[in-house]
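Single-chain item
Fold in token form
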Amino acid sequence: MADTIRGGRVEPTLGGTEPRATHSDLRLPESGSGRGTIVSLFRRRPKPGAEPAAEQRPEPRIAAAPGAKRPEQPEAKVERRPEPAPKARAETVRRAEPAPEAEPRPKRAKLPTARRSLWASPITRRILLLNVMALAIPVVGLLYLPTYRDSLIQSELELLKTEGELFSGALAASGVVTDPDGSERLQPDTSRQTIRRLVDVSKTRARLFLPNGTLIADSFLLSGPGGILLIEPLPPPEPPEGPILQALGGAYDWLLGRFPSSDLYPPYGESAVQVADDYQEVKKALDGEAATYIRSGGDGSLVLSVAVPVQRYRQVLGALFLTKAGKGVETTLRKTRLTIIAVSLVALGITVLASLYLASTIALPIHRLADAADRVRRSKGRAVAIPDLSKRSDEIGDLSGALRDMTEAVWRRMDAIERFAADVAHEIKNPLSSLRSAVETVVRIEDPQQQRKLMAIILDDVQRLDRLISDISDASRVDAEMSRAEIGRVNIRDLIIALVDIHSVTGGDHTPKVVAELPPTDDLTVLGTEGRLGQVFRNLLSNALSFSPPGGTVALRARRERGRIIVLVEDAGPGIPEEKLKAIFDRFYTERPEGEKFGTHSGLGLSISQQIVEAHNGTLTAANRRDRAGNVIGARFTIDLPAV
């Protein structure tokens, strides 16, 4: 950036928000054309990693004589030279580097989360697992059905016992004969016929034992010309099952084998010659007591047995032993379990569909948000936006809104950083330009008085740079310090009283007077950082004092209103231009009273104050005070903070 020298005034070519630094009554020594020669002190640095081409060297900058034309540069000619031997190569030729060692293959990049299928989502799998487990636990309990099974067995035994009592009564009435000695006994032939007629309908096996334990009748044994035949009733024919039913039946049998079954009961067996001692219930029946028993049939079925005494006038004439296969119990259990399985399959289908729907309303939106956040992180522009799911009245909608707000806050912060860097560069260039011009000029003048003036300008510019750098450093640290600072209870009343006391001690006789107006009963406590809030009040008080006339009054007022603490800083100065009420909070903006020395303020005080107040969830605004006639009588700054 070149500087222009006009009539002894050194001005930077870039404008600024502040007046340009000038130094008058300076004259340059006249020589030749009367213009000085300026040699550029800055050179562009090569980019990192860039190397100059072979046989090319940077040209030195030579200051041309005033008024002389720059000589034309001849076109570069390329001269072919014989390639030297490998050992005599020029240093600018990069030697071949040894091949690098094989590096481990980088891991495959993880796909964006939104590309996952619904089944690949861990949330979907967890929802499905929990819902299926919640359904499977009661279903497994129902399939087990121990109480229901026991109740069915007891019902069958009660029916069999009732049937046995009826059969024993019929036998006692028709199958008993009286011997010549007056004793009574069961007639074997008559008892066999009676038993056969009784069991034709019930299909129950009936055996009759005498008191001595001998078997005299069996409904499954039939005597004929060829001897005794064993009759075994066959089950009714069942309709043929298709492959699906066979598969379901096999699955049912496999699943049934996982539960406790009839294997817990003792096995049922028959000897070639059956006697009463083979069966415990028969022995109890011969003692005059009815008894029941459950045995395992060996193929997973049950054998239910009942033994009742055959009595006549309290005399035990024999024991009727009834046995029945527990097919009815197993059939009923099978039908019940198949019904439960069918209902469970329907419920499982509904559960899976509902789980997938629930997972799609949770996992997919989260995947969309995560993928959008990842694309925002990877993208170099602002074309990618977070999906707006705020219409959902649930936590995902809240998450979407929070991510969108966070993204906007990040963009705003980046814009603010960019503007801050641009403002800092612009503001620092002004004193640097003035300082550079003064340094370049001071070496070419011989008048000691003019040299002293230039040195004074250089000192002012250095002080201005120091003040700018200090304020810029303070402004850049506010957000970071506020995020790390410990928040505590701050009494605004104590801060204001301390400021008034300090001013009363340090202020002179001709400085404006500072007064505090604080309600005695209001609690003026806020949550924040005492040091930073004190900095805000000091900045506003210093600003008000600088604009107030000598002998004027600066008022500090505070009150509590609807859960807020309102602090007013009022002065008696000329006020603020209406169009500048918001601009005064911009960085590096200065609007100083007339007669004040230039460069004593950096224009960051109000900007830092507003930044601190907003970090405390408050607001800082400016307005003009007016009298009844509408005339401006001063400025008013209002701080609004949340109360404790």
User: Anything to note?
Assistant: The longest strand covers residues 302-312.
